[in-house]
Amino acid sequence: MLENTDLTQTLDNAAYKVRMNALQEKLHTLCYETYRAERPVVMVFEGWDAAGKGGTIRRIAEALDPRDYIVYPIAAPEGEDKTHHYLYRFWRRLPPTGHFAIFDRSWYGRVLVERIEQFALPHEWQRAYREINDFERELTEFGTIVFKFWLHISPEEQLKRFQARSAVLYKQWKLTDEDWRNREKWQAYHDAVNDMLLKTSPPNAPWSVVPANDKNFGRVFTLETIVEKLEKEIK
Amino acid sequence: MLEQLDLTRQLSKDEYRAVMQPLKFEMYEMGRAVHDTKTPVIVVFEGWGTAGKGRAITELTARLDPRGFRVYPINPPSPREIRYPWLHRFWSKIPARGEIAIFHGSWYRRVLIDRVAKNISKQEWREAYRDIQDFERTLADDGIVIQKFWLHVDKREQKRRIKKLLESKTTAWRVSADAKIESKEYDAYTFAAEEMFGFTQTEFAPWTLVSAMDRRLMYAQIFETLIARLKPFVGAHMIEMEPSSEYDARVIESEIEDAGEYRSHADA
Question: How far apart are CA B162 and CA B189, in angstroms?
């Protein structure tokens, strides 16, 4: 599935500005309409390291009322999250009606990093597809609007971005040794992502694969997907 | 399933003492082994209002280390709770590894009182069955040991207990709005309960139906069932069951005496 993504698409800065402004304005209004409609919204961001999750989330957050959303960065679990079932962590962080919860990485860690690093046993991550589908079905049955984005870039693009990150002082915090280690496991992740896309794309909570080699294109693509679906769900 | 319950059986004080003394020692050991083995446990108490869910939990927790368990009373969802998918308030109460979560009422409200009182639509309680099956299977797969109890009294006995409780101001508060609905709709509630057993009786989350007509028998059956349920998971970590002190033996003796004092709240 990933191999069918056209990564050559781009958007120049001038066009980006116009379209991004228009999308953010729409999203701003939709934020209040979602609140009035009492629908919770869940957004999942997954993707390669340096694919642009953080930057895309910022473009979304800019458009939302700060009282209405929370962003959860998801790294290795700690404390209570660690002593419970892996989904406990996410059930606890669900948004109430009318609010947005944005997950920078998510429960899909179970079938990605936990699978590849062998933190989860094969039968554990294999049954996780069903558990996740059940979980998301319970969300959408309640009326939650669920978005799931896989931000896709090529390995060459990732290398360029890593190099840029290590060269520019204010970007260095974004690059860790782990990113380099993960990069060596590109093929394993590639297979895991394809399995994930295949097994967790029911109609109620489909994945959107975002062609993110061009940052402008990826961001506009993501916001367009959000605006389109929210308009459809709320009106 | 309910018609198979023998509601006439009773335990005399002496029988109760003989059965209960070893079970009480064992339960204490069991609680420790649950902690040591980091086994998460869920115990659900459902059943008729006045059947004695609260008393059963008191009896059970008296034998557990207070650091090792949590009791959750489940009421109608609060205004805050209805702003989330309905299982949210149960997911947020699942036990950590090594912890026992005891539910006084549970997610089964949804297919019992909420269904009978028509608090939710038919579609909603039907979907709830699937949600519940998925929920319990997901937890059990993760190693959570689940045991569900249905405490049963017959129609006449429930009516009698409610009537008796309502007679005095000091006990009237025990009769909840839910209990009144159950009592009024005894047959519809029974139908819903029977269907519930059918849909949710699983190997990994079994129901045990207990006659609550006689208090002593009820306690003994709950202890027996729970110990048998947990033993395969934690039995190897239990030590020889003996009263750990003279004091412990005295406490147990007085608990057994108390349990023999009356048959229900209504008779207290």
Answer: 16
Q: Which residue of B has its CA nearest to A94?
A: B84
**What is the predicted ipTM?**
0.89
d(CA B259, CA B20): 10
CATH number, domain A11-234 = 3.40.50.300
Among A82-91, A205-214, B174-183, which stretch is predicted with the lowest mean pLDDT?
B174-183
CB-CB: which of B80, B85, B97 is closest to A138?
A: B85
The whole model's pTM is what?
Answer: 0.91
State the CATH architecture for B2-249. Answer: 3-Layer(aba) Sandwich (3.40)
Residue type, B56: A
- For chain A, which residues make up each domain, given as ranges? 11-234
Residue A68: both structure tokens together: 């209405």
How many Å lie between the alpha carbon of B217 and the closest alpha carbon of chain A? Answer: 35
Nearest CA distance, A139 vs chain B (angstrom): 6
Beta-bridge mates of residue A147: A43
pLDDT of B267 reads: 52
What does the alpha-carbon distance between residue B201 and residue B208 come to, in Å, rounded to a whole number? 9
Question: Which residues in A lie closer than 8 A to residue B144 (C-beta atoms)?
Answer: 85
**Strand locations in B83-173 (E):** 100-104, 145-152
Sheet arrangement for strand A69-73 = A69-73, A100-104, A41-47, A145-152, A207-211
Q: Give the type of residue at B145.
A: V
Place of tokens 């609060």: B78
Query: For residue B212, what are its two tokens?
Result: 């609550």
Residue A165 and residue A172: Cα distance in Å, rounded? 5
